[in-house]
């Protein structure tokens, strides 16, 4: 029944079919899912791992900032003691590369204490087959003798040491996603062949998760981001919205202090180069998903000669302008909502009816009604929710076609005036408990410091505002999902990154950039732009819905990515699966 709570087995009726790559990339044997040895579900394609989907939800990327914070761009924590760098005695459990080795060259002398520290790996508490450790990096690379971040690392060792090619450093995006958690589920995220050949190494970026966390938002701040009216209808309502979010941004800066001013992706990229040397790798092999593609691009641009085999999945370019991002955002959302509507109207229980043309307007009307009246819920402390929670939850259900049944049930319940299903979805993504507390690991804690450092401040000249108004009028559902367009970083006390707008990573080895044609979070336009902006970018697209491309249901993509990671074989630029 439509009003039953959604369950983990809510799956689409049939998976999507795919075109084939050239013969160089043979598909898995008939009847087997790519790289798993498991039976393929009826209708073709590969079943998505439930844990893979959880990780995709954790990897909430930059575009989502516009939904969560209703923006265009999108007490003090206890001090972290500054420990001494570990001694470099030869008795350390796992030593750094020996002085003079290839992996240990080409770093500034002022940073030698960081590049020569030794990593002492020990069994992880939850899985003794994995290894955990920490490493230190300077809070401010311009002042390496000052305060330090302690970064948490987790390694899933190569399952076949005889085939080991090195380390594969991974990042799930966010910003704010945990790479340590990502590595914990390495067997669900990477094929057995990749797992056999690489140590999968995940880390929590500086200020995030277990890496000297900067917690600059309280529970009330995060609730305010969802309770504020994202579509103000009057100057007074708009003024209230701007004041609320500016207040959250100012409080984050005050609570986060100096460390919050040093959580940029550019600084994380420098941390990864220290990590590369400590892992003993001459070049960095890297897999980044979602906002992790931004990290990969920043690393490649800063250290092009140190790029090994790099895969950027569901991408965005550091060169994207406001107008380009708006265009990609519209294209990604429209294609994703159309795909959901097409699936829904073919079902006998579709909450939107059976007329494609009318279905979109029904969602518009629902959001307008929610803005006026809200939805009732049984959640303590959230007896009534508004557009913020509802729009965010709808958007998150578009991340994967496996969430479409949940969205259908949630919409049906919402049309009846109740928001329990949609609220449950939204709360699970941001890790809000029923008692109103958010998990310390929620990506929301990192969203403001990272985004405000990473992106140039938005332009608000008359021509830009006119283009925004035109786009909102032409795409009313997108406009309601996105909310008011403005820069939430305008009250952040530090400047954003300077615009680059030139070719990235000149001289780097081939970088494989992949993405789904219908991705609501990192739209395919941004993926195509990054592949073009990278001097050595190779584009591979998947005719698929949702966010996350590799090991997510397309054997053609999996074969191509594995061929590149394992043998250095890149598909032809522009290949479509």
UniProtKB/TrEMBL annotation:
> What domain of life does the UniProt record list for this protein's source?
Bacteria
Q: Name one GO molecular function term.
A: hydrolase activity
Residue ranges occupied by any Peptidase S33 tripeptidyl aminopeptidase-like C-terminal domain in the UniProt entry? 477-577
Q: Where is the composition biased (Low complexity)?
A: 13-22
The portions of this protein that span the membrane are 53-72
Q: State the residue spans of region: Disordered.
A: 1-46, 82-103
Q: Which keywords describe this protein according to UniProt?
A: Hydrolase, Membrane, Signal, Transmembrane, Transmembrane helix
Q: Which family does it belong to?
A: Belongs to the peptidase S33 family.
Write down the PANTHER family for this protein, in alphabetical order.
Answer: 2-SUCCINYL-6-HYDROXY-2,4-CYCLOHEXADIENE-1-CARBOXYLATE SYNTHASE, TRIPEPTIDYL AMINOPEPTIDASE
Q: What is this protein called?
A: Alpha/beta hydrolase
